[in-house]
Amino acid sequence: METKKRAVALGLFDGVHLGHRAVLDLALNQEKNGLQPAVFTFNPMAVLRKTSGQDGYIYPHILKYEMLENLGFSFNIYSENFDEICGLSGEEFAENVLVKKLNAGIVCCGNNFRFGKNASCGVEELKSFGEKYGFEVHTAEPVKINDITVSSGEIRRCLVNGEIEKANTLLGEPYNIYTTVVHGNEIGRTINFPTINQNYLEGQLVLKYGVYFTTTYIDDIKYKSITNIGVKPTIAGKRTPLSETHILDFSGDLYNKNIRVDFNKFIRPEKKFSTVEELRKQISEDIAVVREI
Questions:
Q1: How many CB atoms lie under 10 A from the CB of residue 170?
Q2: Residue 215 in contact with residue 245, Cβ under 8 Å?
Q3: Which of 7, 105, 153, 185 is most buried, most CB within 10 Å of its CB?
Q4: How far is residue 127's CA from residue 87's CA, in Å, rounded to a whole number?
């Protein structure tokens, strides 16, 4: 029977931003006291349930879990199906999940954390259950930067409005896309600007359509790059939004590889051009801007 107590960080942790890291640090800091740091979270699709489908999630589950592992939670990340948990009362969650499943000695959360059926319980109820079932509750105060409270909602607002530098400040690192490179229509090759295409996943928040100064990582080498987010309106036909990146001073086959692209600065909105030649000229100008940054 497992006897080592855990310090469990609770949250959806969409974006793993600086506010989340304050909660996660509470759990990590308990390792010196003999508790095993752990995370209890949900698949990012739970964001759609939480916001009634109005907001997309920031990062796919694979990237979120990798970020949590890199912070120090290897092998101790527990992600449940939201539908299987949302019907539990607050006390059922505390007894069956926190105590019986996770062996929690300390539970860490934000001071606005809600849980239980219909989000009926908050921190005070959690403390009450802790007294009954034998765990402590540690809460993190909201993190503020330049008088702005760090939250997933504020970061989503920044991303859909192209305020990428502000979003990056709140995230604590550059917003990034880290997915598999897929085949596109290869229009970029015909105008001497080959690109890598990366799709957004179902339910994921899409950045404001436009052109961004980005950094692309290939085999741990950083390359300046320029990325268009959108639907390529100059090219005939309908398509779903994707990320299309031209990597400066690089040539090579990256198909089917997972590539990380960091977003640094919004350059301009996406635009429909009258001809492909006009598009080619604009891309040349965009690249000149990026080289100067």
A1: 23
A2: no
A3: 7
A4: 20
At 252-279, the pLDDT tens digits run 999 999 999 999 999 999 888 778 888 8
* Contact assessment for residue 215 and residue 264, using Cβ atoms and an 8 Å cutoff: yes
- Apex 260 CA angle, 13 and 181, nearest 5: 115
Residue 242: both structure tokens together? 């994707």
Query: pLDDT of 208-231, one tens digit each?
Result: 999 999 999 999 999 999 999 998
Q: How far apart are CA 255 and CA 63, in angstroms?
A: 19
State the residue for tokens 């000229």.
Answer: 281
Q: How far is CA 70 from CA 67, 103, 273, in A?
A: 5, 23, 43
Sign of CA dihedral 287, 159, 44, 138: positive
Give strand ranges (E) for 128-232. Answer: 136-140, 144-145, 148-149, 176-180, 196-199, 210-218, 221-230
Closest to 176 (Cα-Cα) out of 59, 261, 264: 261
pLDDT at 125 over 50: yes
Give the model's pLDDT for residue 236.
47
Q: Which residue shows structure tokens 């502000």?
A: 166
**β-sheet with 104-110: strand ranges across:** 77-80, 36-42, 6-10, 104-110, 136-140
Task: Please list, in sequence order, all residues whose beta carbon lies within 8 angstroms of the beta carbon of residue 220, skipping any fewer than 6 positions away.
Answer: none
Average pLDDT of span 79-86:
84
Q: Residue 90: which of 125, 66, 38 has the closest Cα?
A: 125
Residue whose tokens read 């589950």: 61
CA–CA distance from 149 to each of 68, 81, 156, 166 (Å)?
22, 29, 13, 12
179: three-class secondary structure by DSSP: strand
